Amino acid sequence: MFLFLQNLLWGQNASFQLQILDARTGEPLAFATVKIPELSAGAVADSAGRVALALPAGTALAELSAHMIGYAPQTLRVRPGHEPVVIRLEPLSETLGEVVVSGTLKPMARSESPVPIEVYSPKFFRANPTPSLFDGLGIVNGVKPQLNCNVCNTGDIHINGLEGPYTMVLIDGMPIVSALSTVYGLQGIPNSLVERMEVVKGPASTLYGSEAVGGLINVITKDPRNAPLFSLDLNHTSHGETGADVAGRAALGKATALLAANLFHFQKRRDVNGDNFTDVTLQKRASVFGKIAFERPQNRVANIAGRYVWEDRFGGELQWSPRWYGTDSIYGEAIRTNRAELIGNWQLPMEEKITVAYSWNLHDQRSAYGTTLYNGRQTIAFAQLVWDKKLGARHDALLGLATRYTWFDDNTPVTAAPENGENRPSHTWLPGLFAQDDVRLSDRHRLLLGLRFDWNSAHGPVLSPRANWKWSPDELNTFRLSVGNGYRVANVFSEDHAALTGSRRVVLAADLRPEQSWNANLNYTTKFFPAFGFVGLDATLFYTHFSNRILADYNTDPDLVIFDNLDGFAVSRGFTLNSDWNFISGLKIMAGFTWMDVFTKENGVRAAQIHAPPFSATWSASYTIPKWKITIDYTGSLSSPMPLPVVPNDFRPGHSPWFSLQNVQFSRKFNNLEFYAGIKNLFNFMPRDPLLRPFDPFDKYVNDPVNNPHGYTFDTTYNYAPLQGRRVMVGLRWVMERH
Question: Which of 241, 465, 488, 530 could disulfide-pair with 266, CB 3.0 to 4.6 Å?
C-alpha cells in the first residue's frame, strides 16, 4: 500500500523529496507521515525518514504538514523542483513516548522500561474537562472512579477491579494519599500544574511499600523552569458548577517558583429523581500548590513543593441546614476537610548519585453522617535515601533506605483501648530496605529484579520481591512479563465509607491481619504504520491471588457492616487492551476495553466482588476541522452489569444495567486563547432507586409490618454511576508562553 501510494504520487509531473528528522538528535524519523490537505494526499516516510511526493503539473507552491507520534506537527510551504527539503520535528513533552519514573524510581524512556506503564498527558484530560483528577480518570481504561455513597458522593479509585485502598496515589513519586485521605486525595490537585500522569497496574510494593497492591497513580507536576509564565482555565456548567484553575511562574534568583490554585464551587440543590435528597453533593473547595526548583552545580536535583486543600461538602435532605448537624430531625452528611502536604527531593553534593526524597501530610476530617459523628486526624511522614549506581556495562543498580511513620486518631473503637475504652491514637513505624538491579542481558532482553524488606511495628516483617522481564524481538514489538508480591495493612474505618455512615453499624469479627497477594501479568505492545497513519496496541493479561483480604460483609445483616479476614482466597484476573489510532486526516482515536473476573472463595462458596464490572470500555476521539480550526472531542465509557450491595429481599436488582456515559466538546483556539463548550452525559443516564427508604433516613418507622414487611432500613451504598444528568459546559483557557 505504501509503494502504491508513493508510485501514484511519483506519477505526477512536479515531484520533490524531503526528509524528516528529530530536531534534537538529528535521527531520521521512520514512518513519519506527510500530508497535503488541499489535495487530500499523503505519504509515509521510509526507514531513513525520506518521503517522495508529487504535485499536479503547474503547481507553484503547496502547503504540507509532517506528523509523528510524540512530536509537534509542522506545516510549511514547498516549491516543486527544489533541492530536498529537511523537516525537523520537535519532540513533545506530553506524549505517550516520554520519559517515565514510576516503574523503576529513575528516569527512563517508556519504551525501554521493563515495567508496563501507561502515561496520560494534560491534553488527554482536556478532552473531557472535570472538576478534579478523580472525575477525569473515568476515561482511562481499567481505572474506575467509584462513588461509594449516594449522599456525600465520596469515592475511591479502582484499578483492574481492586478497590480504592489497594491503589496508591503519589505526587512526584512520593506517597501522599493513604488511609483516611484515600477518598479525597485526587480532589483539588490543580490541573494546570500536571505534567503527566503515570499509571502502573499490579503490585508496586517493592519500590513503594504498603498500599501499592492493585497499582499506583503517580501525578507528575511541572518543572517550574519549563512551565508557562501564566495559565488560566475557567469553566461553568448549566447545573451551576464553577471551576477555576490558575498557575504562574516566577524567577527567584537561582531558583524558579510555580504557584497554582484550584477553586470549585457548587451550591445548587438538585433532586431530579424526587426522593427529597440532593442528587449531587454541594461542594466548596480551594487548593493551593507551590513548587520551587533550585539551580545547582552539575544539574543536581533540588526541589520542594507544598499543597493545601480545604473542602466543605454536604449531601442530604433538601431542607437541611447546618443547624441540623448531627441531629435526628433532618438527615444530612456534612464533611469538612483540611489537608496539608509537603514533598521534596535533594541530591547530595557528591560524585555518587544519592538522593534524599521526603513527604509529609496532615489530613483532618470533621464530619457528620446523620447522627453519627466521625472525626479523624492523620499524619504521615515519609523519607527515603536512594543510591543510583551503575555496575559495569550491563547492571544499573538502585539501593534504598526508607521509613514511614503514621499517626492516626479518630473517635471510633479502632483508637480506643480495649480494656477501658480510653482514646489511644495509633503510632505505626514502617522502616524498610530495598534493592533493584536493571540488567541489560542483550540489546533485545532486559531483566529488572527487586527485593524489599519492611518491618511493620504492629505486624512484624514483610518481604516483597518482584521480577520484570522485557523482550523486544524488533523495534515494533515488545513483550513484558511481571511477577511481584503486594501487601497492605488495613484500617477499615479510614478507608471504607460504609463504615462511617449512619445507615449501618460496624462489627470487627476478628483481629485484622495484613493482606498478602501475588501478581503476574504479561504485556504486549506493538505498532504498525498502515497507509492511513499509525496504530499502536497495548494488551495485558493480569492475575492477582490474595492469600488474605479484609472483606466487608453487607449481606448478613442489613444494619451491619461486618469486617473479617478472608477464610479462603481471592482472585482478580482479566485482559485489557488499549489502542491508539492516528490518521493522516488528523483524526485521533484512543480506545480500549477490560474484561475481568474478581471474586472471593470461602468454604467452597464463590462470591463476585461488588462494583467490579466484568466488562468495561473507554474511548476518546479527536478531530480538527482545518477550515474552521475547530477541534471536536468525543469521550465516553461503557460498563457491563456489576454486582451491587443489596439487602435481603431487596426489590432493587442485584446487578446494575449496561450503561454508558458519553461527552462531546468543541474547542477553538485564537493564538494563546482557547474557548470550549460541550455536553456532559450526552444521553442523560442516571441510576434508579439509589437510596433505600429515603423518607425514613433515621429508621424511626422500620418496625411496621404493614408498610415495611421486609424490614428495610435506610441505606446509601447502592451505587454504580453518578446521579448527575445531562449538562452543558462552557469555558476558556489562556496560556502565556515562556519568553
Answer: 241
